[in-house]
Amino acid sequence: MIQFHNVTKHYPGVTALQDVSFSIKSGSCHAVVGENGAGKSTLGKILAGVQKLDEGTIFVEGMPVRLETPFAALQIGIGIVHQELAFCDNLSIAENLCLGKIPSSATFVKQNSLTAKAEEMMSAIDPDISVHQRLGELSIGRQQMVQIAAAMGNGARIIVFDEPTSSLSHVEAERLFEQIELLKLQGVTCVYISHDMDEIFRLCDEVTVLRDGKHTGTHPVENMDKDRLISMMIGRSLDAYFPAHIEAPTGHEMLRVQNLASPDKFHNISFSLKSGEIVGLAGLVGAGRTEVARALFGLDPAATGRIYIDGKQVHIRHPVHAMSEGMGFVPEDRKRYGLVLSMRVQENIALPTIQRMSNFGWIRTAAEESLAVQYIEGLRIRTPSPAAPTAGLSGGNQQKLVLARWLAANCRILIVDEPTRGVDVGAKAEMHALLDRLAAEGSSIILISSELSEILNLSTRILVLRNGEIAGELSRQNADQDSVMRLMTGVPSKCE
Amino acid sequence: MDVVIFAGIAHAGASFALPLLLAALGEIFAERSGVVNIGLEGMMLSGALGGMIGSYFTGSAWLGLGIGMATGVFLAVIFSTAAVHFGADQIVAGTAVNILALGLTGVVYRRVFGITGSTLSVESFDAVEIPLIHDLPMVGALFSGHTPPVYIGFLLVPIAAWVLFRTTLGIKIRAVGEHPLAADTAGIRVQFIRHGCTLFSGAMAGCAGAYLSVAHANTFVEGMSAGRGFIALAIVIFGRWHPFWALGAALLFGIANALQFQFQAAGSAVPYQFFLMLPYLLTLLVLVIFASRTYPPAALARAYARR
Questions:
Q1: How many independent structural domains does chain B possess?
Q2: Could you give the CA distance from residue A427 to residue A408 in angstroms, rounded to a whole number?
Q3: Burial of A99 (0-12, 13-18, 19+ CB in 10 A)
Q4: Mean pLDDT value of segment A57-71
């Protein structure tokens, strides 16, 4: 049993957790849910010793514990799977996995037992990964697999999963769920921090809801339903959050792609995109969705094929060409590729159009600001002011900011890659409504998402990629979870 | 030019390369643990004075070298306290150490020896010939007939590589420099490793400085490190944080330096400044040709504090 007793944590200017008290049963899978900023991650980090609590006590099996460091937590048997706590990119997977207990004799590393130990840890999760690789060479999804292997391999009795599936493909997520079921059978307590309803209802026995740093309730999952859980999380009813899909008529052909190919990544990709359409690109991680998007945007020098915009053939060899053709790209990792976090909100919005905003190299701040205000209002970006630093915005609002930037640059074709990854329920619904509205207003959108419900809800048509090829195309009417999954994985449908 | 001149250049080159190599080896450890020790130059300079004083008063070149190392460590303690313990900006702290060393060595030197115009000379090392290798052409000149510290310095290269890539300590150092939080999570004492590596780089820089004053010049001159600390920093980057590559870079610098003297002496028509550029051009070229996948430590120059 883990008991939280009046746990309080302050960050400069914010109270992340306020007098949180609840308990987690041993051997259960306990979900901790809440919107972004509700304090659920902070709670997990405190339990794993990554952050120190300011007030209150945590009891494990009735004993008060001091979780000063992650190592101390691990000694007590608490491990964590967390994206930011990942590993050293430049070390091999084996070295990363065994970092705490490196097999050695007289300080010399025993390479063979290091490899064997690492392979044993990996075999439960992803036996295909070679442990000699540099960790940085793996995709984000696979890096997380390594981390899960490490937590499991460390013999922890309590494992905190902090949004573990946010970067995993369907197959990988399935494997994780199986692992968690296995762990439960072995009596391991899982603390599952997430805002994904399906995962919670599938995996967890109990759920604790946090809102604005306060505990709003702990209930058995079987007594809950999604609507009630969401209204507990957001403190409001659900309807306002999931607006109905807008059916808009589609216009002329905006983009046509013929035989797009890139060695070892994808080949024979042909499709078209009309104005007002949202085309969803579905596929497993590694199917080539992001790679296709990058090639369209001129980020893949090896790509070949023909691209027509408005019926005219264009040669896109560089993002600058793509931008001048009215294309915009909202990348998956917005912090790394999308935004300059240290700049002000208005500067980020005006970045691609900075030429228009300046006279002889001097930026017209007033023009920049009025442009920013226009999009902050239009997209309902929540920021204290256009001059506020971007880093202070929540994930969902940062994502909108990237969109705003492209809209400000008069983009007609938008490629959005995982637009709602890591944003909370409310922000996700707003992003969906926004994409819907943009399409209805005549933009063409290519939507890449690992979340099937997102693809199904938003897309006019769905292209399914498998192993770098288009495995099939489904219209909105014909697409459902089952048919898309079958195309993604290559499993034939039941009636065939 | 004949073989004799080439042999002379090779021999002098190895000797020029040694202090750079020593300082660079220390710096590789510091940087691999995530600490940029810009104070290398100052630690070298104070090591030079420490070595000279040590050798002068004890009459032993070896003790001089040891005292030079201790002087480097002393400055490294100051730097490490500021940069690692208190998390001060490493560049600023290191620069402060350099300026401090420049002033302090001058003051101490004058206090101990007075403002003597005449240069004092101190106990030095004798050259040692390696029996078989000495008779080989070229190779003999490069590898034999040096003072003992040179041999030790070159032997340190494989040892350093071995420690860094084959021991648990090495993995810990690299982990700390890559992702201190992950290392902390695995129970590695981040600050302890960083302090240790910083002090080691101080010791190596001090040793390099002492070599300059005791073995090379046989005396101390104010500001005698003459930017070698900074060249060592460059060698670490050219050498991609790897001891063997750093050895190559140091030798390139050393030999180009020797070449430059040779050309000046020979009265070549080509301006000697061109040869001063040589080592840098060469290392750049080598880097471009052999550029393979090596990455700087991800947490380089970033202070770590647990929240």
A1: 1
A2: 21
A3: buried
A4: 87
CATH of residue B14: 1.10.3470
Helix pair B228-238, B40-58: axis angle to 10 deg: 120
Instruction: Identify the three-state secondary structure at position B77.
Output: helix
Neighboring chain B residues of A70 at a CB cutoff of 8 Å:
181, 184-185
How far is Cα A145 from Cα A135, in angstroms, rounded to an integer?
A: 11
Q: Scanning every residue of chain B, which has its alpha carbon at the shortest distance from the alpha carbon of A48? A: B185
Topology of A2-238 in CATH?
Rossmann fold (3.40.50)
Task: With beta carbons less than 8 A apart as the criterion, state whether B56 and B120 touch.
Answer: yes
Angle (nearest 5°) at CA A293 between A290 and A294:
85
For residue B299, the distance in angstroms to the closest alpha carbon of chain A comes to 10
- Tokens found for residue A478: 């014909």
Q: Is there a contact between A479 and A456 (Cβ–Cβ < 8 Å)?
A: yes
Average pLDDT, integer, range A355-360? 76
Q: Which residues contact B136 (CB under 8 A, 6 or more apart)?
A: none
> Chain A contacts of B168, Cβ < 8 Å?
102, 104, 107-109
**Does residue B165 form part of some domain?**
yes
Give SS3 for B279. helix
A-chain CB neighbours of B166 within 8 Å are 108-109
Q: Does B108 reside within a domain?
A: yes
Does the beta carbon of A136 lie under 8 angstroms from any beta carbon of chain B? yes
Q: The domain containing residue B59 runs over which residues?
A: 3-119+139-290
The reply to whether B295 falls in a domain is no
pLDDT tens digit string along A40-53? 888 988 998 888 88
Q: What is the pTM of this model?
A: 0.69
Other CB atoms within 10 Å distance of the CB of residue B296: 16
pLDDT the model gives residue B2: 62
Model confidence at A336, pLDDT cuts 50, 70, 90, reads low
Contact B283, B252 (CB under 8 A): yes
| B179/A74 touch (CB, cutoff 8 Å), yes or no | no
CATH level 3 topology of A253-489: Rossmann fold (3.40.50)
B260 contacts B276 by C-beta, under 8 angstroms: yes
Alpha-carbon distance of A61 to A156, in angstroms, equals 14
Parse chain A into domains and list their residue ranges: 2-238, 253-489
Please check whether residue A114 is in contact with residue A103, taking contact to mean a CB–CB distance below 8 angstroms: yes
Residues of A in contact with B307 (CB under 8 A): 51-52
Instruction: Write b or e for each residue in B26-44: b if 16 or more Cβ atoms lie within 10 A of its Cβ, otherwise e.
Output: bbbbbbbbbbbbbbbbbbb
Q: Which of B271, B267, B270, B287 is nearest to B279 (CA)?
A: B287
Q: How far does the CA of residue A91 sit from the closest CA of chain B (Å)?
A: 7
Task: Please give the residue of chain A at the shortest CA–CA distance from B178.
Answer: A88
pLDDT in tens, A302-312: 889 999 999 89
Selection from A196, A185, A215, A145 nearest residue A28 by Cα: A185
**Beta carbons of B184 and A71 less than 8 Å apart:** yes
Interhelix angle B61-80/B40-58, nearest 10 degrees = 150
Nearest by Cα to A278 from A484, A434, A465: A434
Its ipTM equals 0.71
Judged on CB neighbours under 10 Å (0-12, 13-18, 19+), B100 is: middle
Is B306 inside a domain boundary?
no
